[in-house]
Amino acid sequence: MLNQNDATWQGAYKIPWDNSDFSRRMLREHLAQDHDLASRRVEWIERQVAWIHETLLDEQASDLLDLGCGPGFYSHRLTALGHRCRGIDFGPASIEYARKHVRDGQSCEFVLGDIRTAAFGGPYDLVMMLYGELNVFSPDETGGILAKAHTNLRPRGRLIVEVQTPEAVERTGRAEPSRQEADSGLFSDQPHCRQTENRWLPEERIAVQTFHVTDTASGQITQYRNTTQAWPDAELAKLLVDAGFPEASPCDTWPCNTEDLRLWIARRD
After folding, report:
1. Judging by DSSP bridges, how do beta strands 178-182 and 153-164 pair with one another?
2. pTM to 2 decimals?
3. CA spacing 20 to 30 A to 220: which of 111, 142, 172, 264?
Protein backbone atom coordinates (compact mmCIF):
# COMPACT_ATOMS: atom_id res chain seq x y z
CA MET A 1 0.00 0.00 0.00
CA LEU A 2 1.24 3.47 -0.83
CA ASN A 3 2.37 5.56 2.12
CA GLN A 4 1.45 9.23 2.30
CA ASN A 5 5.17 10.06 2.42
CA ASP A 6 5.33 9.07 -1.24
CA ALA A 7 5.74 12.07 -3.56
CA THR A 8 2.29 11.41 -5.02
CA TRP A 9 0.71 12.57 -1.78
CA GLN A 10 3.04 15.47 -1.10
CA GLY A 11 2.32 19.14 -1.70
CA ALA A 12 -0.95 20.40 -3.17
CA TYR A 13 -2.30 17.03 -4.28
CA LYS A 14 -5.91 18.27 -4.09
CA ILE A 15 -7.75 21.17 -5.69
CA PRO A 16 -7.97 23.89 -2.98
CA TRP A 17 -11.70 23.72 -2.32
CA ASP A 18 -11.11 25.61 0.94
CA ASN A 19 -10.00 28.69 -1.01
CA SER A 20 -12.77 31.30 -0.81
CA ASP A 21 -12.97 31.86 -4.59
CA PHE A 22 -12.86 28.15 -5.40
CA SER A 23 -15.45 27.49 -2.72
CA ARG A 24 -17.79 30.16 -4.11
CA ARG A 25 -17.52 28.77 -7.63
CA MET A 26 -17.91 25.21 -6.37
CA LEU A 27 -21.11 26.13 -4.56
CA ARG A 28 -22.56 27.19 -7.89
CA GLU A 29 -21.83 23.68 -9.20
CA HIS A 30 -23.36 22.07 -6.09
CA LEU A 31 -26.58 23.97 -6.70
CA ALA A 32 -26.81 23.20 -10.43
CA GLN A 33 -29.56 20.77 -11.44
CA ASP A 34 -28.35 20.00 -14.97
CA HIS A 35 -25.46 17.76 -13.91
CA ASP A 36 -24.12 15.66 -11.00
CA LEU A 37 -20.52 16.86 -11.08
CA ALA A 38 -20.39 18.37 -7.58
CA SER A 39 -23.54 17.10 -5.86
CA ARG A 40 -26.30 14.82 -6.99
CA ARG A 41 -29.46 16.35 -8.29
CA VAL A 42 -32.21 16.83 -5.73
CA GLU A 43 -34.34 13.89 -6.92
CA TRP A 44 -31.52 11.44 -6.13
CA ILE A 45 -30.58 13.09 -2.85
CA GLU A 46 -34.17 12.71 -1.70
CA ARG A 47 -34.25 9.03 -2.67
CA GLN A 48 -31.08 8.40 -0.70
CA VAL A 49 -32.27 10.39 2.31
CA ALA A 50 -35.46 8.29 2.36
CA TRP A 51 -33.36 5.10 2.20
CA ILE A 52 -31.16 6.24 5.10
CA HIS A 53 -34.21 7.22 7.17
CA GLU A 54 -36.24 4.08 6.48
CA THR A 55 -33.70 1.31 5.88
CA LEU A 56 -30.79 2.25 8.13
CA LEU A 57 -32.48 4.22 10.91
CA ASP A 58 -35.89 2.50 11.01
CA GLU A 59 -37.48 5.97 11.07
CA GLN A 60 -36.15 6.46 14.62
CA ALA A 61 -34.68 9.85 15.59
CA SER A 62 -30.90 9.43 15.56
CA ASP A 63 -27.66 11.38 15.90
CA LEU A 64 -25.85 11.71 12.56
CA LEU A 65 -22.49 13.01 11.36
CA ASP A 66 -22.15 14.04 7.71
CA LEU A 67 -18.46 14.17 6.66
CA GLY A 68 -17.77 16.35 3.63
CA CYS A 69 -21.33 17.65 3.93
CA GLY A 70 -21.02 20.35 1.24
CA PRO A 71 -24.01 22.72 1.31
CA GLY A 72 -25.88 20.42 3.71
CA PHE A 73 -28.34 18.87 1.27
CA TYR A 74 -28.51 15.56 3.18
CA SER A 75 -28.41 17.01 6.69
CA HIS A 76 -31.14 19.55 5.97
CA ARG A 77 -33.48 16.80 4.80
CA LEU A 78 -32.58 14.34 7.55
CA THR A 79 -33.18 16.90 10.29
CA ALA A 80 -36.56 17.65 8.70
CA LEU A 81 -37.33 13.96 9.36
CA GLY A 82 -36.51 14.34 13.05
CA HIS A 83 -32.83 13.42 13.18
CA ARG A 84 -30.05 15.46 14.80
CA CYS A 85 -27.24 16.22 12.37
CA ARG A 86 -23.75 17.67 12.40
CA GLY A 87 -21.97 18.38 9.11
CA ILE A 88 -18.29 19.12 8.57
CA ASP A 89 -16.79 20.56 5.39
CA PHE A 90 -13.83 22.80 4.56
CA GLY A 91 -15.56 24.81 1.82
CA PRO A 92 -16.50 28.16 3.41
CA ALA A 93 -19.18 29.03 0.85
CA SER A 94 -20.82 25.62 1.26
CA ILE A 95 -20.87 25.89 5.05
CA GLU A 96 -22.26 29.42 4.87
CA TYR A 97 -25.05 28.18 2.59
CA ALA A 98 -25.74 25.18 4.85
CA ARG A 99 -26.03 27.36 7.95
CA LYS A 100 -28.37 29.83 6.24
CA HIS A 101 -30.76 27.06 5.25
CA VAL A 102 -31.27 25.49 8.66
CA ARG A 103 -34.93 25.93 9.53
CA ASP A 104 -36.15 27.08 12.93
CA GLY A 105 -36.45 24.20 15.33
CA GLN A 106 -34.17 21.86 13.39
CA SER A 107 -31.30 20.26 15.30
CA CYS A 108 -28.61 20.82 12.70
CA GLU A 109 -25.07 22.18 13.10
CA PHE A 110 -22.48 22.88 10.43
CA VAL A 111 -18.75 23.16 11.13
CA LEU A 112 -16.13 24.69 8.86
CA GLY A 113 -13.17 22.35 9.15
CA ASP A 114 -10.94 19.72 7.55
CA ILE A 115 -12.21 16.24 8.38
CA ARG A 116 -8.62 15.02 8.63
CA THR A 117 -8.03 17.20 11.70
CA ALA A 118 -11.43 18.44 12.93
CA ALA A 119 -12.99 17.04 16.09
CA PHE A 120 -15.98 14.90 15.16
CA GLY A 121 -17.91 15.20 18.42
CA GLY A 122 -20.49 12.58 19.09
CA PRO A 123 -21.31 9.92 19.94
CA TYR A 124 -23.35 9.20 16.81
CA ASP A 125 -25.66 6.47 15.63
CA LEU A 126 -24.55 6.96 12.03
CA VAL A 127 -21.54 8.53 10.34
CA MET A 128 -21.78 9.03 6.60
CA MET A 129 -19.31 10.02 3.93
CA LEU A 130 -20.86 10.06 0.48
CA TYR A 131 -20.14 10.73 -3.18
CA GLY A 132 -16.62 9.33 -3.43
CA GLU A 133 -15.06 11.71 -0.94
CA LEU A 134 -13.06 8.93 0.71
CA ASN A 135 -10.99 8.34 -2.44
CA VAL A 136 -9.38 11.79 -2.47
CA PHE A 137 -7.25 11.23 0.64
CA SER A 138 -3.97 9.38 1.01
CA PRO A 139 -4.15 5.85 2.46
CA ASP A 140 -2.77 7.03 5.81
CA GLU A 141 -5.26 9.89 5.98
CA THR A 142 -8.09 7.59 4.96
CA GLY A 143 -7.25 5.17 7.75
CA GLY A 144 -7.16 8.04 10.23
CA ILE A 145 -10.56 9.37 9.15
CA LEU A 146 -12.14 5.93 9.44
CA ALA A 147 -10.57 5.28 12.85
CA LYS A 148 -11.84 8.64 14.11
CA ALA A 149 -15.32 7.82 12.81
CA HIS A 150 -15.17 4.52 14.71
CA THR A 151 -14.18 6.30 17.91
CA ASN A 152 -17.11 8.68 17.66
CA LEU A 153 -19.79 6.07 16.99
CA ARG A 154 -21.97 4.51 19.66
CA PRO A 155 -21.64 0.74 20.15
CA ARG A 156 -23.29 -0.96 17.16
CA GLY A 157 -23.42 2.41 15.41
CA ARG A 158 -22.91 2.36 11.68
CA LEU A 159 -20.69 4.01 9.11
CA ILE A 160 -21.67 4.37 5.46
CA VAL A 161 -19.08 5.33 2.86
CA GLU A 162 -19.77 5.74 -0.83
CA VAL A 163 -16.57 5.08 -2.76
CA GLN A 164 -15.57 5.49 -6.37
CA THR A 165 -15.13 2.05 -7.91
CA PRO A 166 -11.61 1.00 -8.95
CA GLU A 167 -12.79 0.88 -12.56
CA ALA A 168 -14.02 4.49 -12.40
CA VAL A 169 -10.77 5.75 -10.89
CA GLU A 170 -8.68 3.93 -13.49
CA ARG A 171 -10.87 5.30 -16.27
CA THR A 172 -10.14 8.83 -15.02
CA GLY A 173 -6.40 8.17 -14.97
CA ARG A 174 -6.40 6.73 -18.47
CA ALA A 175 -8.58 9.45 -20.03
CA GLU A 176 -7.24 11.35 -23.01
CA PRO A 177 -5.92 14.88 -22.42
CA SER A 178 -8.41 17.66 -23.07
CA ARG A 179 -8.53 21.40 -23.70
CA GLN A 180 -11.38 23.79 -22.94
CA GLU A 181 -11.80 27.55 -23.28
CA ALA A 182 -14.34 29.39 -21.14
CA ASP A 183 -15.42 32.91 -20.27
CA SER A 184 -15.61 31.77 -16.64
CA GLY A 185 -15.87 28.51 -14.78
CA LEU A 186 -14.82 26.45 -11.81
CA PHE A 187 -11.15 27.37 -12.10
CA SER A 188 -11.51 31.11 -12.77
CA ASP A 189 -14.04 33.93 -12.92
CA GLN A 190 -12.16 35.37 -15.92
CA PRO A 191 -11.78 34.11 -19.50
CA HIS A 192 -9.29 31.27 -19.50
CA CYS A 193 -8.10 28.06 -21.14
CA ARG A 194 -7.94 24.82 -19.16
CA GLN A 195 -5.77 21.94 -20.30
CA THR A 196 -6.17 18.65 -18.47
CA GLU A 197 -3.58 15.86 -18.37
CA ASN A 198 -4.33 12.46 -16.82
CA ARG A 199 -2.03 9.74 -15.50
CA TRP A 200 -2.75 6.24 -14.21
CA LEU A 201 -0.22 4.77 -11.77
CA PRO A 202 -1.05 1.05 -11.90
CA GLU A 203 1.15 -0.17 -9.06
CA GLU A 204 -0.27 2.36 -6.61
CA ARG A 205 -3.73 2.33 -8.25
CA ILE A 206 -3.84 6.12 -8.31
CA ALA A 207 -5.25 8.54 -10.88
CA VAL A 208 -3.56 11.93 -11.11
CA GLN A 209 -5.18 14.79 -12.98
CA THR A 210 -3.18 17.95 -13.67
CA PHE A 211 -5.00 21.10 -14.71
CA HIS A 212 -3.11 23.91 -16.45
CA VAL A 213 -5.24 27.06 -16.33
CA THR A 214 -4.11 29.93 -18.57
CA ASP A 215 -5.59 33.37 -18.01
CA THR A 216 -6.60 34.69 -21.44
CA ALA A 217 -5.72 38.33 -20.76
CA SER A 218 -2.37 37.96 -19.01
CA GLY A 219 -1.17 34.56 -20.23
CA GLN A 220 -0.41 33.59 -16.62
CA ILE A 221 -0.57 29.83 -16.03
CA THR A 222 -1.71 28.29 -12.75
CA GLN A 223 -1.42 24.56 -12.15
CA TYR A 224 -3.64 22.37 -9.98
CA ARG A 225 -3.51 18.68 -9.19
CA ASN A 226 -6.21 16.21 -8.21
CA THR A 227 -5.21 12.79 -6.87
CA THR A 228 -7.63 9.87 -6.48
CA GLN A 229 -6.93 6.52 -4.80
CA ALA A 230 -8.67 3.38 -6.07
CA TRP A 231 -9.74 0.90 -3.40
CA PRO A 232 -10.33 -2.71 -4.53
CA ASP A 233 -12.91 -4.47 -2.38
CA ALA A 234 -10.40 -6.59 -0.43
CA GLU A 235 -8.24 -3.59 0.45
CA LEU A 236 -11.19 -1.44 1.44
CA ALA A 237 -12.53 -4.24 3.65
CA LYS A 238 -9.12 -4.54 5.34
CA LEU A 239 -8.94 -0.76 5.78
CA LEU A 240 -12.29 -0.82 7.58
CA VAL A 241 -11.31 -3.79 9.74
CA ASP A 242 -8.07 -2.05 10.71
CA ALA A 243 -10.11 1.03 11.71
CA GLY A 244 -12.18 -1.11 14.08
CA PHE A 245 -15.08 -2.26 11.90
CA PRO A 246 -15.25 -6.08 11.86
CA GLU A 247 -18.56 -6.01 9.98
CA ALA A 248 -18.17 -4.25 6.63
CA SER A 249 -19.66 -5.07 3.25
CA PRO A 250 -20.97 -3.42 0.07
CA CYS A 251 -24.68 -2.67 -0.17
CA ASP A 252 -26.66 -3.45 -3.31
CA THR A 253 -29.93 -1.77 -2.29
CA TRP A 254 -28.55 1.77 -2.10
CA PRO A 255 -30.37 3.97 -4.66
CA CYS A 256 -27.70 5.31 -6.98
CA ASN A 257 -27.73 6.91 -10.43
CA THR A 258 -24.29 5.71 -11.50
CA GLU A 259 -22.28 2.48 -11.50
CA ASP A 260 -19.12 4.48 -10.74
CA LEU A 261 -19.98 4.69 -7.04
CA ARG A 262 -20.67 1.94 -4.51
CA LEU A 263 -21.90 2.13 -0.92
CA TRP A 264 -20.27 0.21 1.92
CA ILE A 265 -21.82 -0.27 5.34
CA ALA A 266 -19.73 -0.94 8.43
CA ARG A 267 -20.80 -1.45 12.03
CA ARG A 268 -18.86 -0.64 15.16
CA ASP A 269 -18.21 -3.69 17.34
Report:
1. unpaired
2. 0.93
3. 172
Asked if 139 contacts 229 with a C-beta cutoff of 8 angstroms, the reply is yes
Domain ranges of the chain: 16-164+231-267, 169-228
The CATH architecture one would assign to domain 16-164+231-267 is 3-Layer(aba) Sandwich (3.40)
Q: Per-block average pLDDT, block size 10, for the chain (269 residues)?
A: 61 89 94 82 96 97 97 97 97 97 92 97 96 95 97 96 98 97 95 98 96 97 96 96 94 95 95
Burial class (CB within 10 angstroms; exposed 0-12, middle 13-18, buried 19+) of 195: middle
Nearest in space to 108 (alpha carbons), one of 159, 73, 134, 146: 73
What is the 8-class DSSP label of residue 52? Answer: I
**Phi and psi at residue 89, to the nearest 5°:** -155, 150
Contact (CB, 8 A) for 30 and 70: yes
